[in-house]
Specification:
82% helix; single chain; 0% strand; 410 residues; mainly alpha; globular; Growth Hormone, Chain: A
Length: 410
């Protein structure tokens, strides 16, 4: 027990500890509004297809900033991009807070995609740089769990406020809270984060430098081994499948079961709590026993959990099966995230995560868009059924092709 506590203290020393605390501030406020975002789109005049369109547009917009952010992260360093984009992101919350109709949510989504696309490679690289192969799964788990636990009560509290004062008023106060706590988070990152890139370089966008930029990305791709490519290929299946269904958990719960905001808020609070506990339980074993077995367990169990969710016949069943979905995710999440860092050398991580973020955005956002159309035109279970089929194929392929990495990058 004392050994485990020492490992946790060691992992949280320095940048990772700052990121846990600053991300916890985001989580407290972000968990107020995020579980109900799809309902806000409907409240402001959008339809189910518009939910997917907004998310899909944002994903497309995010692609180019992701690549640019990855290049800048490996040239200028992680810290400056991280805190600057965090300041800009908090301003987007005010657009959502005072949006008169869903079209302003589109504007907010585009701006958020631009700023987040530039920021995400720096954040991912900073977290990876602040871990070691020996504690990587535990470090990622602590980062995710710390922020999740901070926001565990937010959905329940917000669901109650929503039932008392209405969705629109509640969402506006929620986004104002995001602005306030997000600004504090940005300041913490500016004040306390230490740069992890030892040597920075000048940035130029002359024509010859653009060709060098493309060559840099080619070099990053060339650095990936066959094991990494297999894992990324499997990840694409799950990213698209999750994109099809995830935004519509809340709309399905309300359309199928006619539950209240506070009832959904309670489910999401329990989901967050269970997810956090489960991740802490599996994090150290993922480092000690090998990551791949945990990733395979997640890939195989996910479609089963989705099937149970859409087969629910009561509120309690809905709650239990939604928790099953999050358990399926949690059992593999620390190992899943750590594997991406294991496969890439430190000097390539900015561009590596930029390419991954662009791919994830395209697939997940495309899934969001298709999921909305399918939900509206083919039935409320259809996006989940298609996701189940895709995940089942992914689970089978993972058992055949996914292997433990022979060498883990620092």
């Amino acid at each position: 027990m004392s050994h485990q506590i020492e490992k946790i203290k060691s992992a949280l020393h320095g940048n990772l500890g700052v990121m846990v605390v600053s991300s916890a501030l985001w989580s407290i406020s972000g968990n107020l509004t995020a579980p109900f975002y799809a309902l806000y789109v409907l409240e402001l005049g959008g339809d189910y297809a518009m939910i997917g369109k907004i998310l899909g547009i944002a994903a497309l917009v995010k692609m180019v900033p992701n690549l640019l952010g990855g290049y800048l992260t490996d040239k200028l360093g992680r810290k400056q991009i991280l805190f600057t984009m965090t300041y800009l992101l908090v301003c987007v919350a005010l657009i959502r807070a005072f949006a008169p109709d869903y079209r302003f949510l589109i504007i907010a989504a585009v701006l958020e995609a631009l700023f987040m696309g530039l920021r995400q490679p720096s954040m991912s690289s900073l977290i990876s740089d602040s871990t070691t192969p020996e504690n990587r799964s535990l470090s990622y788990a602590l980062w995710i769990v710390g922020q999740n636990l901070a926001g565990v009560l937010s959905p329940s509290v917000f669901g109650y406020i929503m039932d008392q004062y209405g969705l629109r008023v509640a969402m506006r106060w929620g986004y104002i809270t995001i602005f306030a706590l997000g600004a504090l988070s940005a300041y913490m990152r500016q004040r306390y984060i230490k740069e992890t890139l030892a040597k920075t370089q000048e940035v130029s966008f002359e024509t010859k430098r653009i060709s060098e930029l493309l060559n840099d990305f080619k070099a990053t791709l060339s650095s990936l081994k066959r094991q990494a490519i297999n894992f990324i290929a499997l990840d694409t299946i799950y990213t698209l499948a999750l994109g099809l269904a995830e935004p519509y958990f809340v709309t399905y719960a309300i359309d199928a079961m006619n539950i209240s905001g506070s009832q959904w808020g309670l489910i999401m609070s329990l989901v967050t709590l269970v997810y956090s506990i489960a991740m802490l339980v599996v994090a150290s074993p993922s480092d000690e026993m090998g990551r791949v077995r945990f990733v395979k367990a997640s890939m195989v169990s996910w479609p089963i959990a989705y099937l149970l969710f859409i087969s629910s016949g009561s509120y309690l069943q809905l709650m239990a099966t939604r928790i099953c979905v999050t358990l399926a995710a949690a059992v593999g999440q620390p190992a899943w995230t750590a594997l991406f860092a294991d496969y890439c050398p430190k000097e390539h991580r900015g561009r590596y995560y930029a390419m991954l973020e662009s791919m994830w955005g395209l697939l997940y956002g495309g899934g969001n868009y298709l999921g909305g159309l399918i939900y509206q035109n083919m039935g409320i279970k259809a996006p989940f059924q298609i996701a189940i089929a895709m995940m089942a194929v992914g689970g089978i392929l993972s058992l055949i092709f996914l292997k433990e990495p022979q060498f883990k990058e620092q």
